[in-house]
Amino acid sequence: MKCIKERVEKPWGYEEIIQKNEHYAFKHLHIAPGKRLSLQYHKEKMETIYCLSEEAIVWTKRSEDDTETKKITLHYGEAFHIMPNQIHRFAAGFYPVDLMEVSTPQLDDIVRLEDDYNRIETTTKETE
Fold first, then answer.
1. Which of 51-60, 68-77, 80-89, 116-125 bottoms out in mean pLDDT, i.e. has the lowest?
2. Residue 122 CB contacts under 8 Å (≥ 6 apart), including other chains
3. Is 105 helix (H, G, I), strand (E, B) or coil?
4. Distance from C-alpha of 90 to C-alpha of 36, rounded to nearest angstrom
5. Pick from 82, 119, 118: nearest CA to 99
6. What is the pLDDT of residues 17-51, one digit of tens each?
7. Around Cβ 113, how many Cβ atoms within 10 Å?
């Protein structure tokens, strides 16, 4: 089976879709220095993120009702699992960040709560 390799430019960097099928999706995320993804959650999608860089920043909380936001630093070789409805955001500090994402195949399952690039909408959308 041939792997898909589609690069999608994002305001925070880019993502490369390496494989997507009915069972899973596999992506490479590149976050430019000082940039961050939207604060978001997924209704159905589950993800596991593997850090390929020296350091990546993650903000997370269990749900919108949770008052405690945790800031976690991922280091090279560490993984972080995201369950449905778990609020999260990834960011780069002074250096670029590279992450691998393996997830269930619902790439259009994104609910943005905050976004530095004015991409918040009331419906779920495919692009990040």
1. 116-125
2. none
3. coil
4. 6
5. 82
6. 999 999 999 999 999 999 999 999 999 999 999 99
7. 12
What does DSSP assign to residue 12?
T
With H, G, I as helix, E, B as strand and everything else as coil, classify residue 78. coil
CA 43 – CA 106 distance, rounded (Å): 9
Among 13, 83, 5, 76, residue whose Cα is nearest residue 47: 83
d(C-alpha 121, C-alpha 128), whole Å: 11
The whole-number pLDDT of residue 2 equals 61
- Write the single-letter amino acid at 93: G
Closest CA to 60 of 113, 126, 121: 113
Side-chain half-sphere exposure of 101, counting CA atoms within 13 A: 23
In terms of pLDDT, which residue wins out, 17 or 68?
Answer: 17
CA dist 3 and 60 (Å) reads 31
Specify the residue for token string 């409805």: 85
Name the average pLDDT for the chain.
91
Q: Per the structure block, which two tokens stand in for 74?
A: 């991922």
Structure tokens at 1: 């089976």
